[in-house]
Amino acid sequence: MADSQVNSPEPPGGNGWRREYWKRNIRLVAVLLVIWFAVSFGCGILFVEQLNQITVGGFPLGFWVAQQGSIYVFLLLILVYCLYMDRLDKQFGVYEYDDEAGAGTKEGGEA
Questions:
Q1: Virtual CA dihedral for 4, 104, 28, 18, nearest 10 degrees?
Q2: C-alpha angle 25/29/32, rounded to 5°?
Q3: Per-residue pLDDT tens for 49-97?
Q4: Angle at 76 between CA 103 and CA 105, to 5 degrees
Q5: Per DSSP, what are the bridge partners of residue 60?
Q6: CA end-to-end span of the chain, whole Å?
């Protein structure tokens, strides 16, 4: 797909752009899920003994990651997903505006 089609304000004709859009979306979801798995399962269960050698605020790091750190990482991953998808939506011309000026300019350019 040409860059001029992807960077255009309106979605290009045909379904090729939809495949590319979802391909990028699924790739992002897969990467974020791997990171989440590595932090929650890997650091919270598999490597807990090694991480417990380090203390944070009087608590072993393995315990902290299992109880608090994985939640913080999950929230950070949600933020990353939202920001990336906003950028991807704008790039493919399917961004949904909340303000008055952009109202009615959703997919297809319908007013």
A1: -60
A2: 140
A3: 998 999 888 888 888 888 888 889 999 999 999 999 999 999 988 888 7
A4: 10
A5: 55
A6: 28
